[in-house]
Amino acid sequence: xxxxxxxxxxxxxxxxxxxxxxxxxxxxxxxxxxxxxxxxxxxxxxxxxxxxxxxxxxxxxxxxxxxxxxxxxxxxxxxxxxxxxxxxxxxxxxxxxxxxxxxxxxxxxxxxxxxxxxxxxxxxxxxxxxxxxxxxxxxxxxxxxxxxxxxxxxxxxxxxxxxxxxxxxxxxxxxxxxxxxxxxxxxxxxxxxxxxxxxxxxxxxxxxxxxxxxxxxxxxxxxxxxxxxxxxxxxxxxxxxxxxxxxxxxxxxxxxxxxxxxxxxxxxxxxxxxxxxxxxxxxxxxxxxxxxxxxxxxxxxxxxxxxxxxxxxxxxxxxxxxxxxxxxxxxxxxxxxxxxxxxxxxxxxxxxxxxxxxxxxxxxxxxxxxxxxxxxxxxxxxxxxxxxxxxxxxxxxxxxxxxxxxxxxxxxxxxxxxxxxxxxxxxxxxxxxxxxxxxxxxxxxxxxxxxxxxxxxxxxxxxxxxxxxxxxxxxxxxxxxxxxxxxxxxxxxxxxxxxxxxxxxxxxxxxxxxxxxxxxxxxxxxxxxxxxxxxxxxxxxxxxxxxxxxxxxxxxxxxxx
Length: 561
Fold this sequence. Notes:
This protein is 60% helix and 7% strand. It is α/β, with parallel strands linked by helices.
């Protein structure tokens, strides 16, 4: 597979991998946020023994090793290294299955998609480590099912079982990946299964399940700090149907789809009936994952956008395989039309970010809904999450235009019997522009401000201020650094469910607050009104984002209802 590449093809592969790294390196030193700093505290050298994470121990052991190798501030090297390996694996896997052009397209999608960038630097395993195991398992799976005999398939089956066991030792949700392979194999053999073969298939599935359970129990014996009962109790928290917050689940799903972007979604318009068989595994992966996270378990209170990062790899494979059959020769022959028909519209789309934009608060949602219905889309949408990112703004106008224009092109393509290269090129231009806007805001705050630049300066002020013994931080921002300073008091959330606790905190705490206002506080809310009566010790601004340190010893507590 490797030797067959020409020198030119190696250079192109190297160029794409260079792009892959360049768009990710600025995120390596983003501040840890929420679940990320909790992981950092658990694996920090000198911390408690293994068992702080409720997942199987290979997850925690991986990050403990990274803590010793790179230091506690550099845990993001784990997902970056795995993602780089994934990029290389993805290229050669897709080349093997679908050809060289498909491989270049798949790698391009994986390199520049914002969701892929985020998963490459998020201190967790869902977006980088688990996809690595999936790609390895997919390779041995295809080698096994396409073997000429059971004898020749046996080594690949053993490798597959070993990878499945490794996946379960990372995270129990690896059942999503195993389910994808089971469904794909069952669908593939559905017409040729005899009763005996069907029984053997079910027996094999049961054997793999028992083996995984046995491995987990063995690991619990070898690593006593890992408690399977504690892990099972943790998962029970997500098994509920009657009182789950379906609206919050929908919000997080939409957020994940915005991260996925038109670049990964719109190529599905090129799907034809004959593509189903060759791409079935990846659709099974998407299907089992979505059912698992959206239906079987309730992750409405968790970081659902983090768990759904698994979608990037299958969508990149699907997109690469579908784009490979599009002949762009006609497009490339007309450079003037490329400028007028692709580059100019993409530039105009990117520049809508420069129009005046409102910055509505995240709560209450009434202003958002009013603006959406009135088509006043020139406002900034905040993106943050329970495992990062720290927080950044993107123009909702850009988001809406990219999706609407892309959807129009996709519908037009889907209705035609013949693929139009210019329409496909238009979709790609829209998708690339969209992702560049997201990456630019996340990594650099190009247009709307950069919270990751503001935070270190505010923390440096707090560190040197002898009159600040402790700090309450808004939205859990900066907790990792404040804890290491010995100045962290607690966190302050402003979602409606936390309002009663906020009232007690604001009334009882006579001290300092760090408020990096993304998402922006509601100016009519009692929190913002109270902070307006506090002395401002420190203030810094990065376009639409402001960082302040408030001294609220003399704040007007009569404003707190």
